[in-house]
Design goal:
The complex is a heterodimer of chains A (283) and B (349). With 283 residues, chain A is mainly α. Chain A contains eleven helices and no strands. The radius of gyration of chain A is 21 Å and the shape is globular. Chain B folds into two domains: 247 residues, P-loop containing nucleotide triphosphate hydrolases (Rossmann fold, 3-Layer(aba) Sandwich); 68 residues, ACT domain (Alpha-Beta Plaits), CATH 3.30.70. Chain B contains twelve helices and 14 strands. Chain B is elongated and about 75 Å long. Classes of the chains: A mainly alpha (283), B alpha/beta (349). The interface between A and B is large, with 34 and 37 residues. The structure holds adenosine-5'-diphosphate (ADP) and magnesium ion.
């Protein structure tokens, strides 16, 4: 074959697998999005409860004579929805898919499992985005929050990077969970509450000091939230790090978690094939 | 495509001396197995299945059927030996193999109950890159063919077991596989649903030349009805394989026939027993009818046996050959029903 022909062949194969990947992503995202719309109880658990929590924290700040912080709390509550989604729907997902037999069918399909995970993440993100906006709207109305957008492109960039990194982390946890479910389950239980504290959903991270703040920054929401607050409430000046650095760190985190997810998926599929652990019937 | 991916005349499935050993994880005790204990699920399995065959793998619970299917569907690594699907090594060409295959298992609960049947099938089609429009056309066709046309917009969780399994069959076929693996597909289904599944598998095979099915089952009549060739697996070893007819003939030492007589005379039996080539003869009298079963050294002696009867004054109404069933072949090779029970209990654990 001529080199040019070979090049064409490669490009078309590449395009082909990208198209397959994209379809897989949309296919897997679909049930996540429609199930959010078809199961009405989520409205209560995933909107009403966070809204109540936001209101409670909002009034705490008001009674402390710091009403300017209510915007902080509202944004934190809205972003917390994503963390809850990643922790409860994303991380345990593959484990659950194994129980139903879906995992085997997903693996048996010609597309990479990463696209399945991406679909899960994307579906979860879209469904959560909706809840998150509802929380943001209700909270902002109740406390009359005013936003002062410093830079819309930067705000969007920080949000997207945060999402990619966050769901990358979720994907990584998901595949680890498959292998070490008991252990990871325990870690997840531990992570729920302390993390909502240290990632600063309701407090500025800076208030926790450099060391805890630094540790918390491993969770992409910490810096994401801090960055978004800097873009929306510049007058408060409670930032942890300058936005440029936060963006750089978020980018690195996103890359690390994505590579980590891909690596752990490959590793775990290999191991599971050797150990016979892709289906649950025998465990 | 590279040369390695083109295998016009390779067998659909080939295994060479495949072994699979399961080791329990250390530190855990599960399924009643002590940690560190190992189970040999496949013990040197060699099989060749050509394209276009509907091949049956028969064995009771725990024989190793599912393990072999998982190896061929790239979900499980063989401990040793070689396995090829369409000429491709299962250890090396995972993705090319996955493009060609699909699997349905008995009692499968795949997918998402919240979706409609159509949505669920569309979703699985996406994982194979089928464009939406083509997928929907195919889905309509398949649902119609298995009698689920009216259920297309029903939620998956509301389906009966039989409907669900018919949907699962559509799920597997929506990607137009070349090789279909059916792992006890009718287990737990009622007669009607099983019949629909079997009939559709057969017509799917006929629709296009070169399609291949590997079916595992412990229902002998199912294999007898569907399969051209079968292999019998027991404790991870293939104890017999071949065309179903050959297996049955191989089992039969004597050619057996049964005929009905208008009237009976005790002399007939004596005459028959003395006729050339007759090994045994037995008469049964039931509701005014007389039927006689004879076993012959070989089938050619049937003419002389019939002549013996008519020259003794008998009048033969009907004559048929008695074929052994696959069930008999299986029982002969694999053992009695008692073992079956304990094997079943084994799996429950
Ligand atoms: N993942 C597993 N871990 C340990 N043992 C297993 C596993 N899967 C199957 N086995 C054992 O391997 C043997 C064969 O099982 P299987 O292939 O499922 O048989 P079949 O499908 O014919 O019922 C059985 O003894 C079973 O207990
Ligand atoms: Mg089985």
């Amino acid at each position: 074959m001529e080199p040019a022909q070979q090049q064409n062949l490669k490009t078309s194969q590449w395009r082909e697998s990208l198209r397959l990947g994209w379809r897989t992503l949309i296919g897997r995202a679909y049930p996540r999005i429609v199930s959010a719309a078809r199961e009405p109880d989520w409205v209560f658990y995933e909107v009403a409860l966070p809204v109540l929590q936001v209101i409670a924290f909002g009034f705490v700040y008001k009674s402390l004579g710091r009403p300017q912080y209510t915007g902080f709390v509202v944004l934190g509550g809205a972003m917390l929805a994503f963390w809850t989604n990643v922790l409860w729907s994303m991380a345990g997902q593959l484990h659950w898919e194994r129980q139903t037999g879906n995992l085997e069918l997903y693996l048996m399909a010609p597309s990479s499992m990463l696209w399945i995970l991406a679909g899960m993440a994307f579906g979860g993100m879209v469904a959560t985005l909706f809840r998150s906006i509802v929380i943001l709207l209700i909270g902002s109305l109740i406390f009359g929050v005013t936003y002062q957008i410093v830079s819309a492109p930067l705000l969007i960039l920080i949000f997207i990077l945060t999402m990619v990194a966050l769901y990358g982390l979720g994907s990584m946890l998901s595949s680890l969970y498959l292998m070490y479910n008991r252990e990871v389950w325990a870690i997840q239980e531990v992570m729920q509450d302390p993390i909502s504290l240290i990632t600063g959903f309701y407090f500025p991270v800076r208030a926790l000091g450099g060391i805890i703040g630094g540790l918390a920054s491993v969770i992409p929401l910490t810096l994401g939230l801090d960055g978004m607050r800097q873009m929306l409430f510049p007058q408060l000046g409670q930032s942890f790090l300058p936005p440029g650095i936060e963006i750089a760190i978020l980018g690195v985190l996103a890359l690390l978690f994505l590579v980590g997810a891909s690596w752990s998926l490959t590793y775990i599929e290999k191991l599971a094939k050797i150990e016979g652990r892709l289906s649950l019937k025998w465990q | 495509m590279t040369a390695a991916h083109m295998h016009a005349d390779s067998p659909a499935i080939q295994t060479i001396d495949v072994r699979r050993v399961y080791k329990s994880r250390s530190g855990f005790t599960f399924g009643g197995q002590k940690a560190g204990k190992s189970v040999t699920a496949l013990d040197g399995v060699s099989l060749t299945i050509q394209k276009g065959e509907l091949f049956g793998l028969l064995g009771r619970n725990g024989a190793g059927k599912t393990t072999l299917i998982k190896i061929l569907t790239t979900l499980l690594a063989p401990t040793s030996g070689e396995a090829y699907v369409d000429g491709l090594d299962v250890n090396k060409y995972v993705i090319p193999i996955r493009k060609k295959i699909a699997m349905v298992s008995g009692g499968e609960q795949s997918g998402y109950g919240i979706l409609t049947v159509r949505e669920q099938l569309w979703m699985f089609a996406q994982f194979y890159g089928v464009p939406s429009q083509a997928a929907h056309k195919k889905i309509d066709q398949l649902l119609e063919a298995v009698g689920l046309g009216d259920q297309a917009n029903q939620k998956v969780y509301a389906l009966s077991t039989g409907m669900r399994q018919r949907m699962n069959l559509c799920r597997a076929l929506v990607s137009d596989p070349e090789i279909l693996f059916l792992d006890e597909p009718t287990v737990g289904l009622d007669v009607e649903a099983s019949r629909i599944v079997r009939n559709y598998v057969r017509s799917w095979m006929q629709e296009q030349r070169g399609r291949t099915v590997l079916l595992t089952t412990h229902y002998m009549f199912e294999a007898d009805e569907l399969c051209d060739r079968v292999a019998i697996i027991n404790h991870g070893q293939i104890v017999a394989q071949g065309e179903t007819d050959d297996l049955k003939k191989g089992l039969q030492e004597h050619a057996r026939f049964q005929f009905e007589l208008a009237e009976w005379a005790p002399a007939f039996e004596e005459e028959l027993k003395q006729s050339r080539g007759v090994v045994s003869a037995q008469s049964m009298h039931q509701k005014g009818k007389v039927s006689v079963q004879i076993a012959l050294e070989n089938e050619e002696y049937i003419t002389s046996a019939m002549q013996t009867i008519s020259s003794a004054g008998g009048h033969v109404l009907t004559l048929r050959r008695i074929e052994p069933t696959l069930e008999e072949v299986f029982m002969r090779l694999v053992g009695t029903a008692d073992d079956e029970k304990s094997a079943g209990e084994d799996e429950e654990k």
